[in-house]
Amino acid sequence: MRRLIFNKKGGVGKTSIVCNLAAVSAMSGKKTLVIDLDPQANSSHYLLGDQACDLSVADFLNQSVGFFGTARGAEEFVFKTPFENLFIMPACDKLPEIEHKLESRYKIFALRKAMEALEEFYDEIYIDTPPALNFYTKSALIGADRVLIPFDCDAFSRHSLESVTAAINEICEDHNNDLVIEGVIVNQFQPRAKLPKQLVDELIEAGYPIIPVMLNSSVKMRESHQHAMPLPYFAPKHNLTRQFKALYDFIENP
Questions:
Q1: Parallel, antiparallel, or unpaired for β 86-89 and 180-186?
Q2: Over the stretch 162-189, which tens digit does the pLDDT of each residue have?
Q3: Are strands 86-89 and 79-80 parallel, antiparallel or unpaired?
Q4: List of domains in the chain
Q5: What secondary structure letter does DSSP report for 189?
């Protein structure tokens, strides 16, 4: 299963959702890979801490436009994290530098081919993308089986949701007929506040596929970032950890 978490709006919790769902997957015994396509490399830092990697997803994609030499397999660009069954193909700041070159050579299907090959080694693949509909995000949408849309309970996120779903549907129609929107993940939810519930009710009324498992706002998430340790490892008994496990169970067993 190749699963993408995507929103064009920044700050909605893409990286946190990617890494924590991947952690739950890994802890369930599945060999799980995270592909980090965001130049900020937040997923890479979250799962690897200060561990340096000599190769990245940028190096893998860059070799697809080379004219000489033998290309290395995608598996050679994957690194083991400190957590059992959890692996990552890290990002780096070279991604913006090579984006135009990849786009001009029409390498938008390179990632899909790579993920098809990587499925021989991994049970589940999670993809973190930039908060923009750029070459890397389109590549991920073309290569994914499923997409989840995070929503962080504010008016700006509400306004962007329509354009996000339209962009996904366009990619689906043009390049990936098998792509399925699994649902909208309500993130940073505050159950005692009036506005978040009102916004969620509006989305349900508008017909958006809201996943019933919502992720509460918690400082524990920031602490887990600081320690480079996803919540299932950092705070296994915390309520937010239980919510991530319930979310994982929901999408795995719809």
A1: unpaired
A2: 899 999 999 999 999 999 999 999 999 9
A3: antiparallel
A4: 2-252 (3.40.50.300)
A5: B
